[in-house]
Design brief:
By secondary structure, this protein is of the alpha+beta class. It has 4 domains: 111 residues, Beta-Lactamase; 128 residues, 2-Layer Sandwich (Beta-Lactamase); 169 residues, Reverse transcriptase/Diguanylate cyclase domain (Alpha-Beta Plaits, 2-Layer Sandwich); 267 residues, TIM Barrel, CATH 3.20.20.450. 41% of the residues lie in helices and 24% in strands. The strands form 5 sheets. The chain has an 8-stranded mixed barrel with strand order 18-19-21-22-23-24-25-26, surrounded by 5 helices. It has a 5-stranded antiparallel β-sheet with strand order 2-1-5-4-3. A hairpin with a 5-residue loop joins strand 18 and strand 19. Helix 10 runs antiparallel to helix 11, helix 11 crosses helix 12 and helix 16 runs parallel beside helix 18. It is elongated, with a radius of gyration of 47 Å.
């Protein structure tokens, strides 16, 4: 309603409580009414404004804005609504929305103006921010689209805004995109797992970053890095999603090229370990989502490859690997179970190859592939004009029997491959649960062995070494033992290979050396007359590879124990000596130079000849128990041991027989000239505190029994 006169007294109270600023002016623009809201908005009190010109509220550049309200006698004067600026008492400007209306007397003549003003500065600031935002988004080089915040699984959410970059990158115009779902950009190669991750984040109203393969209107694929965030209104309700997408197609192309070079074996062009494991993880994920997506993993290890490398050179070995690769590729392309595109062939390292076959129907399909591969690989290769044979041992694991991760699945296939080697090579073995049990135990032992010393689970037992002529215990061999808290006593034959494989044998070996030297020093201090004069400690291949570090370690151990160096004997096996003869001989001479003695363990089980003994600075040669076990009845063994003992003694070394279990064996060995022996006849391995008591109880009896049997055999 347009007022026709200044407000009556009964209306002053109403206008006084109004939210909006209200004032009246007369025909000369002097203020005649000023409500409290006007005072709050503009800072002037009613007493200051009544009678003053309203022009003081106009900024200098708005003086001409004073309204001129004209009307005709036969017309109702119109109201004027506009947005403008008014000055506060403190000189600051405030943006307002103003409604001006003429005030008329009873005769219809204009006698003044009514003004209603509302503060719109917050709204105008928000509008400016929105305009600035839209302008920025419109000209941003990144793709921007805004969608309604509807349920993720709904047919929408609908796109309500796209910028110019969206149109440039996608080929869709704004008109084509608005009102449609962002799914118009998805295609066959859009990563479903990444989409699921985005969906889960949106369901939780969480921002998310992802990389996706999108598709333009013409079907061209392009890669984007996308950031999606929820947008809330002033009440905190989420109303929209804003998505900013950066085109990273060029970067992804470079990454793919780099990845291809990094993930390919340079020699064969096959996938390497990294690429194979990635593909296997994808196969595992497909199988978990769909049990029909079966697959199989093959672990191939080639027999005699090292021999080719060592005899014909690395060039020949490389050529063999290339020819193996070609055969594998050919067989996979010709397979009636799968095609090459459905699998991944990888060189895992050295002569180890891995094969992933997807889309098999049953484990029997994997068996057919293995048989085909074995048949193709058994034929000889021509390398440098020579015929070379290198069959394969194959371990197989299928998705039907396994739901573990990629690394563990490869390990299971590796375990099955070693079973194939033990089965005679050139065959395949399917992984089964019993192998898994053995593998689990293996992993438990490996893990727990790392803490066994600190947990006082390891201990050293000592087996006496006896002089066959006198029956006296002259030395003892330190033997490592493990009493596991849950598995019980674990055989050294089981845990020592694991220690060697993992490198744990190095700290464990040093600990054994320290324990053995400490034990001998204690025995000699307690009973210098009967205590052994030396102690023997086994040294592994890994320890020999330490070279000078082992030498320094031995020096430190001897010094800490207070023993003379000649009281320590290191035992190395014939096999370990022959792995790197030149380096081993050099190290042995250095060790012997400070007085430590050397002993060859298990002589007769390796590949060295008796003549080789001249090259090595051994003090003692231990004849393997496999020869002793055939005594006394096997005449051939008698002859071999007799010749061996004679050669050992003639070279100035001492002969020692292992595994002596009967008095007859001891008597024969003594008669053949063997000087030392150890075995259950004399004592099983015992704890260090039992050593002196065992010596005192058994020495005299052993001496008498040995001579009596020797005389009896000689008489017969």
């Amino acid at each position: 309603m347009i007022p026709t006169a200044p407000p009556a007294d009964h209306l002053v109270a109403i206008f006084g409580s109004a939210i909006d600023a209200i004032w009246y002016t007369d025909a000369d623009d002097a203020v005649t009414f000023w409500n409290p809201a006007a005072e709050r908005l503009l800072g002037y009190g009613a007493a200051e404004m009544i009678g003053r010109s309203a022009a003081i509220l106009l900024p200098p550049d708005r003086i001409g804005e004073r309204p001129v309200i004209a009307c005709h006698a036969d017309e109702r004067p119109p109201a004027t609504l506009f947005e403008t600026v008014r000055l506060r008492k403190d000189g600051t400007a405030v943006e307002v929305e103003v409604a001006l209306s003429p005030v008329m007397d009873s005769c219809g003549q204009i006698i003044g103006t009514s003004c209603i003003a509302r503060d719109i500065s917050v709204r105008r600031a928000a509008q400016r921010e929105v305009r600035l935002l839209y302008t920025s988004l419109a000209h941003l080089n990144d793709i921007v689209l805004i969608t309604e915040a509807e349920p993720v699984d709904a047919p929408g959410p609908k796109i309500v805004f796209v910028n110019e970059a969206f149109e440039r990158h996608t080929g869709y115009s704004a008109a084509e995109a608005l009102g449609r779902s962002p799914r118009i950009l998805q295609g066959v190669e859009t990563d479903r797992r990444e989409l699921d991750r985005i969906r889960r984040a949106l369901e939780a109203w969480q921002p998310v970053r992802a990389q996706l393969a999108n598709y333009k209107k013409d079907g061209t694929r392009f890669w984007v890095e996308i950031d999606i965030a929820p947008v809330a209104d002033e009440k905190g309700w989420f109303t929209h999603w804003i998505s900013v997408q950066r085109d990273i197609t060029e970067r992804k192309t470079m990454e793919r090229a780099l990845s291809d070079s990094v993930q390919r074996d340079k020699l064969t062009g096959l996938a390497n370990r990294t690429m194979f494991l990635e593909q296997l993880e994808l196969a595992i994920e497909r199988f978990r989502n769909d049990g029909e997506q079966r697959f199989a993993v093959f672990f191939l290890d080639f027999d005699r490859f090292k021999l080719v490398n060592d005899t014909l050179g690395h060039g020949a070995g490389d050529e063999l690997l290339r020819q193996i690769t070609q055969r594998l590729r050919t067989q996979l392309r010709a397979s009636d179970v799968t095609d090459f595109s459905a699998g991944v062939l990888s060189r895992f390292g050295g002569d180890e190859f891995l094969l992933l076959i997807n889309r098999i129907k049953a484990p029997t399909d994997a068996v057919q592939v293995a048989e085909r591969l074995l048949n193709a690989l058994v034929a000889p290769y021509e390398i440098l004009g020579r015929e070379v044979h290198s069959s394969a041992s194959i371990g197989i694991v299928t998705s039907d029997d396994n739901t573990c991760g990629a690394e563990e699945m490869v390990r299971n296939a590796d375990v099955a491959m070693y079973e194939a080697k033990r089965a005679g090579r050139a065959c395949w073995v399917m992984f089964n649960e019993s192998m898994h049990t053995r593998l689990t135990r293996h992993m438990t032992i490996e893990s727990d062995l790392r803490h066994a010393i600190a947990n006082d689970e390891l201990y050293v037992a000592y087996q006496p070494i006896v002089d066959l002529a006198t029956g006296r215990v002259v030395s003892a061999e330190a033997l490592l033992r493990w009493q596991h808290p849950t598995l019980g006593a674990i055989s050294p034959a089981e845990f020592i290979p694991i220690a060697e494989e993992t490198g744990l044998i190095i700290p464990v070996g040093r600990w054994v050396q320290q324990q053995a030297c400490r034990a001998l020093a204690q025995w000699q201090a307690l009973d210098p007359e009967h205590a052994p004069v030396s102690i023997s400690v086994n040294v592994s291949r890994a320890e020999l590879f330490l070279g000078d570090k082992l030498f320094a370690q031995l020096q430190e151990t001897i010094e800490q124990s207070g023993l003379p160096p000649h009281c320590l004997t290191l035992e190395v096996t014939e096999r370990e000596v022959m792995r790197d003869p030149e380096a081993t001989i050099k190290l042995m001479h250095k060790i012997k130079a400070i007085g430590i003695k050397m002993s060859m363990d298990d002589f007769g089980t390796g590949t060295s000849s008796l003549g080789v003994l001249r090259s090595y600075p051994f003090d003692t040669i231990k004849i393997d128990r496999s020869f002793v076990s055939d005594l006394p009845g096997n005449k051939d063994v008698l002859a071999v041991i007799h010749a061996t003992v004679n050669l050992i003694e003639n070279l100035g070394m001492t002969s020692l027989a292992e595994g002596v279990e009967t008095a007859a064996q001891a008597a024969v060995l003594h008669s053949l000239g063997c000087r030392l022996a150890q075995g259950y006849l004399f004592s099983r391995p015992i704890l260090p505190e039992q050593m002196l008591a065992t010596i005192a109880a058994g020495s005299a009896g052993l001496k008498v029994a040995g001579h009596a049997l020797s005389e009896e055999l000689c008489d017969t």
